[in-house]
Sequence to fold (246 residues):
Amino acid sequence: MRRESYRDKAVVIRTHDFGEADRIIVLLTRGHGLVRGVAKGVRRAKSRFGSRLQLFVELDVSLYPGRNLATIAGADTLNYFASGIIEDYQRYTAACVVLESAGKLAVVEQGEDPWLYDAVVATLARIRQDPHPELVLDSFLLQAMKHAGWAPSLFDCAQCSAPGPHHAFHPAAGGAVCLNCRPSGSAEIPEQTLHLMWLLSGGFWEAAEPYLEQPEILSAAHRLTTAHLQWHLEQKLPSLRILDQG
Fold:
């Protein structure tokens, strides 16, 4: 029995060509989680909506559910974030990490998660304009990990709950660790690094501004944030490797 078509807000997570003229589009939707769909004929020059199915665009899409792939029947642009992102390497690579990490954190089709969708859209909008796109990315990742239920401990010891501030961090231990609990291989860090991460996890942008003059603290916070993310995902993110090589 054919399920009814539906409309939803969506952003494109990734795409790849399929057949001679079609394209597989992976969408993060607001009401149906992660949806894999096929856009038929969009690689032809006369495609009606192929140019809209691209990265960094918020869409209103029309979908017909299928056994393995939905069919994307239409797409209207709601917000166009690409201008201001694709021209700048740091913004572009940071925005790519947002999309890739969201795709890993999102649930499968029918798994509604409007928080994640709204966070992605808001982050793309901020990356487009903020002079510090990597900081915006780290804030998104910390908040997304908190939403997923595995945020790093940034004050109390992740193992014994001894109050901080502490000066060591290990993703496998759960974040900040005290002298008694720190495992081998823990990162030795100044307490300001964890404080910055706490500010970013709460979206306290004004309070975080003094750290913009301390590049070593910014770099350490980014390194710990992404290490914690990839440890819990149990995989490396290619887009993150490209960002950090830039």
Q: What stands out?
A: Residues 130-245 form one domain. The longest helix spans residues 215-233. The two ends are 50 Å apart (CA to CA).
